Sequence to fold (423 residues):
Amino acid sequence: MYGLIDCNNFFVSCERVFNPALNGRPVVVLSNNDGCVIARSNEAKALGIPMGCPAFQIKEYTNPRQVVQLSARHIVYADLSHRIMSIMGCEVEGLEVYSVDEAFFRTPYDDVEQNHKFLARLVKKVHRYVGVPVSIGFAPSRSLAKIASHIAKKDRRITDGVYWLVRPEAIDIILRRTPIADVWGIGRRLAASLMGRGIDTAYKFAQMPSGLVRALYSVTAERTQRELRGEDCQVVNPVTIAHRSLMTSRTFGQLLTDRREVQDAIVHFAQSTSRRLRDEHQVATTVMTYVRGDHFREDLPYYSNSCEMRLHTPSSSAMTIVHYALVAFNAIFREGYGYRKAGVMVSGLTPESGVQLNVWDTEDHGRQRALMQAIDGINQRYSAHMVQLVPETSQHSWAPRQSHLAPPSRTLRIYTGLIDYES
DNA sequence: TCTGGGGTCCTAGGACCC
DNA sequence: TCTGGGGTCCTAGGACCC
Fold:
């Protein structure tokens, strides 16, 4: 059987770890640029503030001053996530970290009651060690475990944070109550189409002839259907498996028209992407740069474009990635437009150990690698920006707004040790 | 005034091959 | 007038996820 551990209101819960005064209050965490709501406390949910709500629309639901709004601190969330996943990794087999706040795993026992007891203890342990409340669901398939974990989270009668869906009769009852749009893998498009056919619950979807689902939609939809029937066939690509592509992109804090300012952002994104590539010991075969105007400004001409460059030899060197990102940038940048967002993506990733050198390639890859290692070492030891290969201007005119940052928590003593977030 | 970022997989269609 | 069949690979775009 599969279990799913899911952190409750994760980003808000993380903020509460550092500031218990937030407990019991409506709290939302805002995306980059303080743009949209990306996490809500139960109190904020009760006020009707929807997920993804633009921050300036909060006033449509309640007096915005009643709501604590916080700029996201993803480094902090990643750290707490790592702690939770480490605990889980020690306790269960086959942990598949699916996202920053979720992981699937194999339940340790055949017996349902034994699993339940074990997992309830685990929920308590994670809360005690990390301070983040979690819920666990378990079932014969991942999709059903997902539904079970939602119930564990939402139903207040479930006090130990664990819910299981195992008996066929119980699964039927729950699926009849599950709206089709709530099923994992059924998005807006598919839900609308299914509703049009009168399929409005997970149960009705599970009862459809498989051939029909396959013919009307896709193999993905068919897999989802089989999962609801308790068959294990969802292909999960846990983040522990190497990435196939990496991207760094930002919406700028303001509209930029100056070429140098946008270019500065591109250099920054390319360096950051190459750094992540090296952290993963992977190399890229293509580098893509894209730029975009502001599609909310109907009074301005809109322009967006992207350009992909193929590398002679796969690389993770900042010099190479920045170089190609800039070549691509120069190919797509147009004067006379305003730019609101840009990004650099690398793809065609392969392990760095297997790189084949191109005969025509004259670059000295050995020396580049040694240089990058030295720079990464210094930056790791001192500060992330101690040594930079390509100078960036000191004013990041593209920098996103973050006006609701919580005060830095100097140190936090937690059961397992000391975290220092100052850097 | 203000609207995120980072991923994966699937499919259709074109290019190309024999 | 006649103008096959089948396969692979690549890419762009769509749908979905958190």
